[in-house]
Every structure is written in structure tokens, then in C-alpha cells.
Task: inverse folding
């Protein structure tokens, strides 16, 4: 996980989180006969349906293959910031306009590029993320 200084840190993973893997869709392309290839943030490519959009997250199981769920990047979803000046922070998406996303983090609102926003849940985060405040 990124901390709020943008440094990758090791964090303990609970047993329930160990069985779930969230992958952000970075790209889509049509391959023969109407099949859609989804390019994921971790380098994987899977064949999926055209119901998913770039920027959404897929919930994959570590025990078996296939998609267990889908988190759409939309207003009201929880998102984790993976880049920019607010890296490592998590909040609720307030609005999306073009390539920018406004996220409510506590009482404040921050604006981030869509490429830095990683959806992690609808009503609540699907995985536990320990977010620490920025140190100087």
C-alpha cells in the first residue's frame, strides 16, 4: 500500500482480505468475434464482458478464476488515491467531470486525476486499508 507520502509500505493482510484481489481496469480492446480483453493495473489481461468501463475495479478471487464482483467508478463509491498530492488517502467520490474526480476525505474535498483514483467499494471498502496522515 502507498502511505500518504507516496512510499510503498507493507501492511498485514487479514484472512478475509487475502481471498480477494481488487484490480483496476486500465484498458479495453475488442478482440475477434466480439470478445473484450480487459487490461488490469497489475499487468494481467482477462477476457470479460463489455459491461465494464476503464477506471472500474474488478473483484477477483485468489482461490479460483473468474470475476466475483465489480466496483464502478461513480459518485458515492469509496476510492483510494494511488498518485498525485493526496496519494495514500481514501474517501468517497463526490463527482466526476471529464478526467477529474472530486473526492470527499473527511470534511475536506480534493480533486484528483481520474487515472489516480482506484475504486475499492460501493457502500464500504471491500478490503481494509490503513490510512495514515502525511508526515513532514
Result:
Amino acid at each position: 500500500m502507498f502511505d500518504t507520502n507516496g512510499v510503498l509500505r507493507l501492511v498485514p493482510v487479514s484472512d478475509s482480505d487475502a481471498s480477494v484481489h481488487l484490480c483496476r481496469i486500465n484498458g479495453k480492446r475488442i478482440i475477434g468475434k466480439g470478445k473484450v480483453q480487459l487490461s488490469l493495473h497489475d499487468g494481467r489481461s482477462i477476457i470479460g464482458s463489455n459491461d465494464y468501463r476503464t477506471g472500474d475495479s474488478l473483484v477477483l478471487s485468489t482461490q479460483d478464476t473468474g470475476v466475483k464482483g465489480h466496483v464502478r467508478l461513480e459518485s458515492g463509491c469509496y476510492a483510494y488515491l494511488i498518485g498525485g498530492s493526496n496519494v495514500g488517502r481514501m474517501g468517497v467520490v463526490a463527482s466526476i467531470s471529464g478526467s477529474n474526480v472530486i473526492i470527499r476525505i473527511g470534511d475536506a474535498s480534493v480533486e484528483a486525476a481520474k487515472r489516480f483514483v482506484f475504486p475499492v467499494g460501493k457502500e464500504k471498502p471491500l478490503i481494509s486499508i490503513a490510512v495514515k496522515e502525511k508526515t513532514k
